[in-house]
Amino acid sequence: SLYVSEYFSQSAQKLSFYSWYGNAKLFHFHVPEDTVLLRWLLQASRGKGPECTNMEITVHFRFGAPPVINPLGTRFPANATVRPSYNISITLSSAVQNTTFVNITTPAAGDWFIAAHLPEAAGRIEVKGFSTPCPYMFQADMFVLRLTEMPVLEPGVAMPQTVVSPAKPLHVKVFVPKHAAGMRFELRSCVTSEQKACAVRVVLGSITLPQSFQRIITCVGNVNCSLALDSPPWEKWLQIMVESLGAANASVSVELLASFTACRPGSTSSFLNFSSLNQSQAGPRPGSTGAAGSSALPTGEASRNVSDQRSFCLQYQPVVREDLDVVSVRYRLLNGPSVPVHSISPTLLLLNLNTGMDSGGSLVVNLLLNKTSVSLANATVVACVSAASPVLSLNATQNCSTAFFQGYPLSMSTSSAEAMLIVLYPQTDDWFLSLQLICPKGQGECNAAEAKVTVFAYLTPCFNDCGPYGQCSLLRRHGYLYAGCSCKAGWGGWSCTDDTKAQSVGAQNLATLLLTLSNLMFLPAIAVAVYRYYLVEASVYTYTMFFSTFYHACDQPGVAVMCIMDYDTLQYCDFLGSVVSIWVTILCMSRVKKILKYVLFVLGTLLIAMSLQLDRRGVWNMMGPCLFALVIMIAAWVYHGVKRRHCYPSSWKRWVFYLLPGITLAFIAISVYAFMETNENYYYTHSTWHVLVACSVAFLLPPRDKHKKPWAWSQKLTCRYQICQNDREELYAVT
């Protein structure tokens, strides 16, 4: 056999500490057909700075869809199916770089996903520029070894093959046709070159992670070996590997045979019932596609006799796939939302999820039993949702499993008429919903019975749109799109349904009140500015107080939220007002000439607005104007001191009672803002920042100019008559 090796690589990504699924870095690869060996090359590295410490990186693997992970140990939504992901840990200790290999023999062909992340985030809010986080990088490369011409085992035809040595196993493949109810594999005529007892191991199927359902049989001696498979995957190549367990130099000759049991679907039709399609919707929807094809076969009415039903192994219900948006699909039944369910053969619905772009959402299946349609009180409707092939033996074993997939069982009865299933990140494949009526005393009493089940099935990016305490975010890795929930107000979980650490409504109201009402501490600063004739500065403080109040009212998680305009606009105005307030306050303290002061006011505001548009959260957007204004203030104070030949400001009371308290409050405010804020204490530490900054402004504003008189409100705002003195000189003409 001729083997060909291929190499696939993707660019490295910077890892993040985990707080929600968006922090996990996703890698998407496609494994080609006839691959016999898959090797992952995982490379992790870190920076060389002192801030870099020992770190453990967790890497998750999954076939067919992104891995479903739960590093925080939170709860999943009710009725959600969760199977643990396969993961490994990579430790970065003294070494700057770590290289790890992961080998998988006979991997399944198709999409494979890798997700990597750092441990749980500490929750500290870091100001951009104050600290330099350590960069942790991760890169995944894929090597595959595949056969160029893998032998094809034709159904019903015995194929002789030879296993050369234990180091070189034999690989063959067989195509599973549609409507295959079962498969039987036989290995016979096993003979070794040394005329000794034959010992071989046969592996059917491919490895899929996190769970693998390969079927393995060991044949010893000259006895024929066989293996029966129920519901093999339809319209797929099934890989078979035969390994020799004998001596190293001994070859083994075998004969392989595969046969299938066909399943006859009921009441097939070669075309869609377009009249039913037009009746089920008011008008054609652009972009909707019908995915029924030859598998969308209308079932007979409830009046079909039992003898007709016995001749079929399943009853199709026509389903149309309607694409609504990205990772958003609705499945509509052409014969109405209710489907008839019998006991003779299962009712089958096809849910098409094989476009390659459907695995990034959640598949929701909701079943509702019509109690009046069930004539038997103790009867139960059993359902099974499976991928690749349907379950066709619900009445015999009630086991929701196929040859290589463990399905998801559901059941309904008159006492519990509703059942719901949520499949998180369903793997790319054809999914099937099988329903059948089961009677406790045997199937004889159910032959003439029929149950009506209403089926609602759809694919959504986020289940329940992440609820009231979450936000559904659409994530992208190259051309692949997937969705995740970002939770707030202490809620957690995959769909933000875990209330273990959730804030109460009272705590949410308290947080909103603290963050908004703390801005009222700008009122004393505004009053001081107006009293000292700093009207421009008072206007800036008023602007800052207004937008900071309503920005934090809009920024709150949970129910205590009020947005008077777009969130992004409120955030920008709040940041702009905060920086400009610091700018005008320091320039006002410098006591430069008025014309120069107002020119610097306008020019600085324009530059600050530009820098905030470039990077709103950069530390130099605040520190830059502050440092430049401080340079101007110090230069002006030095100039005044040299000119007057004594320290400026000259009054010790000004230093002790105003400047030193104001500077102290400002430094405490900066320390709280830069080093103490976390996600948990944000609402009171940031409120403290508001109070300290507003109070420092009131202390730091300089006194009014000496030639300015105090506001004489009784003289400026008067309503009484005044006796005016006429000082005009009269000129008399002398003739």
UniProtKB/TrEMBL annotation:
Keywords: Cell membrane, Disulfide bond, EGF-like domain, Membrane, Transmembrane, Transmembrane helix. The gene is Tmem8a. InterPro entries: EGF, NGX6/PGAP6/MYMK. Its main location: membrane. Residues 458-497 form the EGF-like domain. Disulfide bonds join 462-472, 487-496. The chain crosses the membrane at residues 510-534, 595-614, 620-639, 655-676, 682-701. It is a multi-pass membrane protein. GO terms for cellular component: plasma membrane. It is found in: Cell membrane. Residues 279-303 are annotated as: Disordered. Belongs to the TMEM8 family. This is TMM8A factor.
